[in-house]
Amino acid sequence: IGDTFRGRISIDKTKIFLGGIIDVMPKLTQAKRIIIVACGTSWHAGTVGEYLFEEYARIPVEVEYASEFRYRNPIINQDDVVIAISQSGETADTLAAIKMAKEKGATIIGICNVVGSSIPRETHAGVYTHAGIEIGVASTKAFTSQVTVLTMMAFMIGRKRGNLYDDLYKKLIHELTLVPEKLEIILKSENYIKGIAEMYKDATNALYLGRGCLFPVALEGALKLKEISYIHAEGYPAAEMKHGPIALIDENMPVFVIATKDKSYEKIVSNIQEVKARSGRVIAIVTEGDETIKNMADHVIEVPDSHESIAPLLTVVPLQIISYHIAVMRGCNVDQPRNLAKSVTV
Ligand code: F1P
Question: Where, per UniProt, does this protein localize (predicted)?
């Protein structure tokens, strides 16, 4: 893989280091636009990236389904940076999308898991997530590791572009270093989460709601339920609920709301009220100690308090666990769901 994807990923108290993209850092920091191309779960990770890049790096971002993008005639310029995200590094649509963007002169960066796969070989630089082999077809740790890399990139570019002053930058780095121990705390609630799964295992539909960078987490929660338990599920931006999905809500509809404390908190609380007013069953992912939502929701799953930029990494895990237990209780093969392939190479 030549000179790309070299170097290690590390975080210490004062800096983030993404060895594989050092050479293209000037291109990234001066990019007029970042285009993220991916499929499935990787597209959801890219959409978290969109929120974080815009917030911290202050660069316009477009997130594209590679399967659409490759068949359009998109306007791509030489000062665009295209980021391809793919667990397998072999997804045919993502590969075709970056080949096209490369021909039009864009700088191509990859975020991939499988070392030496096809997508990294078509990029100018990139980062291996080193998440290990995904045994299951449905991506889980690939998602959290892709989001981790995108979060690090957003902070790094933000810092280089002068948007993040010292104290905030250090605080954000510190927050990243706390993720593993916070995830350990969340994993301790597995039995409690399994109990919630038991109550909803016979659902025929489910709705997932989130706002800001937690909206893609809602999409990913819904996708995990669909992929492994075959329950129809939809992820929606919470504020869009009133434009359609609200018609579906009744006492049989479980509504998973990702509602940790951030700048949208008051708004998501009113979205929960709207669901409860229509007798929907609310399962809310909340910041620990949130009594307000506890008094409104049917169930809450608490995650440790964190900076809002870290919340996608923490809140997706209880949703993955719930889908896993529902699938097992329904007798589904969680590692090899029907009709799904690990790498979609055609
Ligand atoms: C994309 C993807 C996965 C999904 C399934 C099918 O793969 O949609 O997100 O879980 O395995 O493919 P990739 O490009 O991230 O390897």
Answer: Cytoplasm
